[in-house]
Amino acid sequence: MAATGRAVRLADVAHLAGVGTSIASRVLNGDPTVSIRPETRERILDAAKTLNYRPNALARGLRLARTMTIGIIINLAYYYENAEILMAVERAAAAAGYLTLIADTADFVGRGEAYRRLLFERRVDGLLIASILVNDEFVRELKQEGLPFVILNRRVRGAGPSASVDDALGMRMAVDHLVELGHTHIGYVAGPVRIDPASRRLVGFRAGMRAAGLPIRSGFVLPCAVDDDAVFRATADLLERRPRPTALIVWSPTAAVPALASVRQSGLRPPEDVSIMSFNESPIARYLNPPLTTVHMPLEEMADAGVHALLRIVDGEHPRSIVARTAPVLVTRGSTGHRGS
Amino acid sequence: MAATGRAVRLADVAHLAGVGTSIASRVLNGDPTVSIRPETRERILDAAKTLNYRPNALARGLRLARTMTIGIIINLAYYYENAEILMAVERAAAAAGYLTLIADTADFVGRGEAYRRLLFERRVDGLLIASILVNDEFVRELKQEGLPFVILNRRVRGAGPSASVDDALGMRMAVDHLVELGHTHIGYVAGPVRIDPASRRLVGFRAGMRAAGLPIRSGFVLPCAVDDDAVFRATADLLERRPRPTALIVWSPTAAVPALASVRQSGLRPPEDVSIMSFNESPIARYLNPPLTTVHMPLEEMADAGVHALLRIVDGEHPRSIVARTAPVLVTRGSTGHRGS
DNA sequence: CTGCGGAAGAAAATCGATTTTCATGGCGGA
DNA sequence: TCCGCCATGAAAATCGATTTTCTTCCGCAG
């Protein structure tokens, strides 16, 4: 077995270089106020390299009150968008020299209460909140604790800075697309409309319909739970309206998969019988049958902006809420077509 | 604004209770050797509750050489299976009182080198390695560093304990299923066969064919890269073989989506013209068109076992490699049918 | 009355890095 | 020759919690 070398400490480096730990520390951290003979500096740097020295993050964090770690509270259960957000956050954090600690909100009910530990144990310099389950009490605790945080992909009145995308605009683009194709009877599988960002998408849907001068027919907007089965049933319900919608928008691409299945189950063929599209892009969209038209939202930019806003707060600044400014992009694929085509 | 209360320290609790920090610490941690007047104990516990005290994780970790955090090195880029593994790991860790720090292997090329920081800065008590990109040098460093680790979802000769599933068995079940349906010309979209676990799936495929007395025809096993486009093209290639395969197995459910699209693009209709199924279950499988037959592997049990093995190593034990023992389950759906049906 | 033992709790060392405060030695100027 | 200052670097305090090592103080037996 490899000699499980006890971790290399700063004292080891200092000793090998024949200096004290204070100088070693200041040289290794590039303290500009240090005055030192070039050869001594070299000895220290060499020693550190030789021993493959890395400062103990806990000791360093304790002293500096900086952990170089951010936390993200997110619900991993629904794949596409959240996984993409998590990826983007991790990437942005890593690029800034930060590590990412995750807490799944499924823990809200668990004994572990991982999110509370992130909050109260000072393990992280800041927190990104990207969970649906953030309630008022939680936000209150958060503010009282004084831990920097940014709310990601949603906006909560008075809660603090957030980074989000312009869901309403994106949804309007979706409606516009269908209107241009001649659709007037547009149904909306709206998801959990009581919570952000689904609520803002609904706003965008209504705005789009109003702008086109189209009425929203009774029962054409159908909220539902996020699980696949609920989406499947909601879609089926929508397709039983008479007159039947000739086009459907689904609030999320993850939900579009069961929605599409439900359309087929109803004996209808997209896009001939009914066009269907989703809000947000997904890597599988182009491989669905038919390939799914989507509105590509700048989630990556949002995640990036969220991380950077958080790090600015950590540095004592007070950034304002951010809405990713990259314009949404309509990705037209085979699942939408002219009415009656 | 809320008075950003400086974090509550143990000394604050002790002071409020009118005792020293040593007693306070021992009482709060339930030290059984402490002897204390019941009323004093109460005062301490009350004080802690009143102040909403949580020990500073860094200070605690520094002293105890225990961070109550594990790290996972994983590639988030390919969604389903990795996201599922990450979810399961986070859940198991949280249930055991541990937090989870992630490092995406995309960082292997980045400046941040998040994975190295996990390794060398003593931020975590142990590491789960679930990445495709783990090379020999990395494993060597890992062992030399003496940080507990478990390799997840893959096996590396001589590298150390791992937690995985019986890929070969699962793949045999897939082959058996198709054989029972009368297929003799079975193609395999094999993915990155040079790396585990795709290599073990290939072994299972070959074993299944041999057991059924079927030859593996030239070009019927087609390795490919993991990206969707490579899968799409590989599938198209397979379908150009003559005689044409009457059934396809895809090494992963994520890859099954572009594979299915490729089948349709070739003008073939599953399952009449060609059956198709994937290894590993996915939440969208039942909503694809046609619904995808899969072999459900016990990834959650694997993740659980991996976490627990890791925690045992942290506790000084020496668990052996684990193969999740829950039997794979064939989930028969519409994408597979009798030959020529 | 003296001393012993244990209960109850305080004081101090420790984890490892950073940072402020001190000490030493050499050099130039008076 | 002597003083003071700067370059160099060591010693010590700090971050917050844990844990080992003392102190007290009291009651009770001898």
Please give a quick description of this structure:
With 341 residues, chain A is an alpha/beta fold. Chain A has helices at residues 10-17, 21-28, 38-51, 57-64, 79-95, 114-120, 136-145, 167-180, 198-211, 228-239, 253-265, 299-314, and strands at residues 69-74, 99-104, 126-130, 149-152, 162-164, 186-191, 221-223, 247-250, 275-279, 293-296, 322-323, 329-331. Chain A has twelve helices and twelve strands.
Overview of the molecule:
- The structure is a homodimer of 341-residue chains.
- With 341 residues, chain A is an alpha/beta fold.
- Chain A has twelve helices and twelve strands.
- Chain A has helices at residues 10-17, 21-28, 38-51, 57-64, 79-95, 114-120, 136-145, 167-180, 198-211, 228-239, 253-265, 299-314, and strands spanning 69-74, 99-104, 126-130, 149-152, 162-164, 186-191, 221-223, 247-250, 275-279, 293-296, 322-323, 329-331.
- Chain A has a six-stranded parallel β-sheet, with helices on both faces.
- Chain A starts with 9 loop residues before the first helix and ends in a 10-residue tail after the last strand.
- The model of chain A has no long low-confidence stretch (mean pLDDT 90).
- Chains A and B meet through helix 4, helix 5, strand 2, helix 6 and helix 7 of A and helix 4, helix 5, strand 2, helix 6 and helix 7 of B.
- Chain B binds a DNA duplex (30 and 30 nucleotides) through helix 2 and helix 4.
